[in-house]
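User: Could you check the structure of this?
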Amino acid sequence: MKAIVARHSGGADVLRLETVDDPKPKPNQVLVKLKAAGINPIDYKMRRDLDRFPVTLPAILGCDGAGVVVEVGEAVSRFRVGDAVYFCQPGFNGRQGTYAEYAAVDEALLAKKPESLDFIQAAAVPLVLLTAWESLYDRVQLKPGMKVLIQAGAGGVGHIAIQLAKLAGAEVATTISTPEKEALARRLGADWTIRYRDQDVAAEVLAWTGGSGVEVAFDTVGGQVFAQCCACTRVYGEVVTILQPPQDFDWTPARVHNLKIALEMMLTPVLLELPKWQRHQGEILEQAALWFDQGKLKVEVAKVYPLAAAAEAQRHLETQAPLGKLVLAID
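Assistant: Sure, the predicted structure tokens are below.
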């Protein structure tokens, strides 16, 4: 099969289109003929420093995929040949990523593709959907009427998070940088938009909440944005971040305000081989598929690249902030 291979760490130019052996599914796996692969920041973070991750060299990167089942392992019970599926499976612990024509995928991580989405759209969904879902529904529990701040609301995770927050009955403020991104955030349900380049985010949030701060702040950016989230959160509120808090962060104000800090990394179930939580991720994708088909969720695809242009696509994501997601078309 054709695949994008990284033989060592480095810049995007280490990604090469090669011909490699087709994967063979284990008893608990299915073989998926991939039609598309989503591109996420974790992909280029892995490429930069492969030794930090439990991947087998030469590495095939990519976590998100959508395609058609062409073979099922003997222990597989929920899928058949011909099923259209979508999934998030990082290439950890002997697995393979999705920048390829085929991938052997754990049954637990799979879900039927939403019928209302094509393969390109479906491949854009899993990692960001799982990240936003686990952050807002598992790490914290949003309730109707809560006010939540979602950072970078037009980004991959952010634009899904806005929708999940609204489905939970929350009111949403979000940060954006351009009129185009503001329009998308409003279209997806954001109640309050903040131009972070031109406005003081904390001041805007305090104005929106009558001076109290939000019940929940969701950091999708990291660095000083984590500190900003803490400053925007009410006493006894909650902050959830998908990145590691900065080492020089002054925890005193957060402690004084009794903030609950939650960390989210959706790669954990595969990284640590946790079957219960792997199945939970498959179940999340199953529920999300229903919501997509009911028109309750939408996904924004910024640009589509051919598989051979994976290096160019990663450069785009590294250097720009696209509106929604980037996707590789494989078929």
